[in-house]
Amino acid sequence: MNRTSKGAAARTPGDPAARLLALLGACTERRTRAADIGSLVEGVCNALVDIGNYAVAAVRLADGDDGESLRILRAAEHRPLLWSELEHLDGHPLTLPLDGGGHSIGELRVLRRDGDFGEAETHALQALAADLAFSAEAIRAKNAQRRLDEQLRQLSRALESSSNGVMITSSTQLDHPIVYVNPAFERITGYSAAEAVGSSGRFLVRDDLAQKGLSEIRAALRERREGYTVLRNYRKNGQMFWNELSIAPVRDESGEITTHFVSIINDVSERIAYEQQLEYHATHDALTGLANRNLLHDRINQSILQAKHAGKLVGVLLLDLDRFKLINDGFGHAPADNLLKTVAERLGRCVRETDTVARLGGDEFVVVAGNIDDPDNLAGIAAKVLRQLAQPLDVEGKEVFVTASIGIATYPRDGEHGESLLRNADVAMYRVKEHGRNSYRFYTPEMNHMALDRLDMEGNLRRALERDEITVFFQPILSLASGRIIGAEALARWNHPRIGMIHPPEFIPLAEETGLIIPLGERVLRLVCAQIAAWQAAEMPPLRVAINISARQFRQDDLPRLVGRVLEETGVGGESLELELTESMVMHDVDNAISMLRDLKQLGVDLSLDDFGTGYSSLSYLKRFPIDVLKIDRSFVRDIDSEADDAAIARAVIAMAHSLGLRVIAEGVESEAQLELLRKYDCDAFQGFLFSRAVPAEEFALLVRSGRTQPPGAAQ
Ligand code: C2E
Ligand code: MG
Ligand code: MG
Fold first, then answer.
1. Which tens digit of pLDDT belongs to each residue from 483-503?
2. Dist. CA 101–CA 110, nearest whole Å
3. Which of 503, 607, 614, 667 to mutate to test ligand 1, by most ligand atoms within 8 A of the CB atom?
4. How far away, in angstroms, is 596 Cα from ligand 3 center?
5. Residues near 189 by beta carbon (within 8 Å), at least 6 away in sequence
6. Which domains are present in the chain?
7. β-sheet bridge partners, residue 580
8. Closest-CA residue to 365 (of 8, 381, 313)
9. Each residue of 425-441: pLDDT tens digit?
10. Who's near 678: CB < 8 A, 6+ residues apart?
């Protein structure tokens, strides 16, 4: 940067000493006036050329704070000069180092054309260079300070207006005393700056020292690194708040020594309270405040882990209140809920702090007892629970007694994890229910296999009806001619919560005997008609669904009325329904049966004779009944491909049935060979495992929609 001097004084020729003095004076004046390094250097260079009469004056300053080096050249000729030209100019150069207090900050070069530098002149120029260096350093220092001040001002404005609390602690002193807190800190903690400054940075934790997050902060302080945690802190008024705390070290200029820590304090109490609420709801039963199923599983698994290490047992006691439904129905929901709360409290009294009481829903509770040495202890807990519950309860001013059935499963004997333990405790609990309730039992593996005995069965079946445990499966019936599904037989299934699917032979006879077949039959009828209606609404191809009618149902005079009503209620046409009866039913009281059958036919339904071949099998009789379909029993079909007699009978039955105008359906077709013969004998339709077992409604619908067929000679 070459600039001409602006309004410079005229050159002072003549006396060298006077010239030097004038030069030094001008430089002093320019130094004191200069506000920045550029004008300082420029002023001095100008003075050197204009007053000192040098041909060239040049200053190079090493990097300043701004990172740029400053080069200023001034030549008497007023022409632009490059630094690189300096070396090659004619004349005598003098290079003077600029010393910034022990280190070089640059150099001053002066060139004179006429003759060498004298000694006095060199001294004067050295003094000038020293002054220049001093002034440059002073200006630099001042600038740096100003920048720092500005930075600090900005920083402190930011700190003062921050909504996060900020606390600065000294880490060079023991106990990390606070040296600064901002207004947000005062607002959050309730402590004023005056109160906080000087006390240890830990004072907000008070004596709540058993916090996981503290060790993270301690480690960060020790290792002089950043740290983050959420801590319980205490305001001046004693109130706890959650402090989301970030700390960061502040290092000195060398960057090596940590002098302070800045802590950013964020009061996240609201967020944490909300999170805790969410978590509580996700893990606790809203009515009783007990652990819910989620938490229960965690707790069981925790207990199992501990027990595994310590070689102990875990007991899972599953408790179901006896006849709670009566209370619910009799008193209403609110009193029943209150009763459940009381039960929850009483259960809490029977266990240790470390045990878990959970509610699974309804009137089912679970106690998890960990750290158990002897199964007898679990029996002790169960007995205690029963005793507690035996105390009368006040429900709407009435004294009510509740009892419970408890099933106990033990880790490790009865299961390795929560699910299996709960399932087995459940099995054991149901054994108690079946054997008179108000007691407890330990699970044994045999319990899984034990068939329900008769007495239990009846109660169970009643409950099954109340609890909608009866469902219907559908076995496809296919046309032999087309190989397509033309209908289904609806078969009852009892979806027992503990045992699983129970098949009709295990409960239909008992239902018959006890009369439960009446509500059960009605249930099946309704389920099936509702299903047909749903399929029709979903535009499934028209199908006929057969329902089994039991003898006892058949004796109910109002059976036709019931069927008619259900058809009407569900909007299903009679042609979609087929009723299966057995020979013995119609043979029993022929006249009555005939009038009943006629009434049923009036509804448009088809009637079929089930299990044909197992009873009287009197075809001549059949003529008298308004029957549409004959179902050849499985026992006949089974051997048609191996027993010549059976084959002959089947063939004759089919032919005769046809002559009577009846369609024939073969039951229990399991093989391609059987199907082949039935086709040969001109049988109309079949059902059997060869094509499909009875399946749930959705699966049946999929089968129909898939269009799957049973083509001749292609077993599936
Ligand atoms: P069913 O009316 O003769 O029904 C046919 C039975 O044979 C069904 O047994 C069916 O699953 C089974 N089956 C079908 N194809 C094959 C096969 O290829 N091989 C073998 N081995 N078996 C096959 P499920 O469902 O156990 O029903 C048994 C009986 O219970 C039925 O015999 C019927 O008499 C009665 N039942 C079923 N549902 C009801 C109902 O809702 N009400 C009444 N009253 N009785 C029902
Ligand atoms: Mg049947
Ligand atoms: Mg049958």
1. 999 999 999 999 887 677 888
2. 22
3. 667
4. 21
5. 165, 196, 204, 233, 235, 236, 265
6. 2-145 (3.30.450.40), 162-267 (3.30.450.20), 275-448 (3.30.70.270), 454-706 (3.20.20.450)
7. 548, 608
8. 381
9. 998 998 888 777 888 99
10. 480, 637, 640, 650, 654, 666, 669, 686
